[in-house]
């Protein structure tokens, strides 16, 4: 699998090749959108830009 954080062209090719023959543009756009969001999350984790579960609960005024 291509490293999506470093090679967008390879990642896009991988997505297109994984689509079923009957896929439409919306299917492609959805998979690109999901991949982009996952990559952003992985980048955040790698950079230590995360919030703990306890902090999320605190921010939303919730308890366990």
Question: In words, what does this structure look like?
Answer:
Helix content is 62%, strand content 0%. It has 3 helices and no strands. The termini are far apart. It has 64 residues and is an all-alpha fold.
Summarize it:
The chain has helices at 8-18, 25-46, 53-59. With 64 residues, the protein is mainly α.
Task: Indicate the structural class.
Answer: mainly alpha
Helix and strand element order: HHH
Count helical runs: 3
Helix content: 55-70%
Strand content: under 5%
List keywords for this structure.
64 residues; mainly alpha; 3 helices
Describe the protein's topology.
Layout: H1 8-18, H2 25-46, H3 53-59
């Amino acid at each position: 699998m291509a490293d999506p954080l470093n090679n967008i062209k390879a990642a896009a090719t991988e997505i297109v090749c994984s689509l079923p023959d009957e896929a439409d543009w919306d299917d492609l756009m959805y998979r690109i959108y999901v991949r982009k969001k996952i990559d952003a999350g992985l980048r955040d984790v790698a950079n230590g830009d995360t919030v703990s579960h306890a902090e999320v609960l605190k921010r939303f005024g919730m308890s366990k």
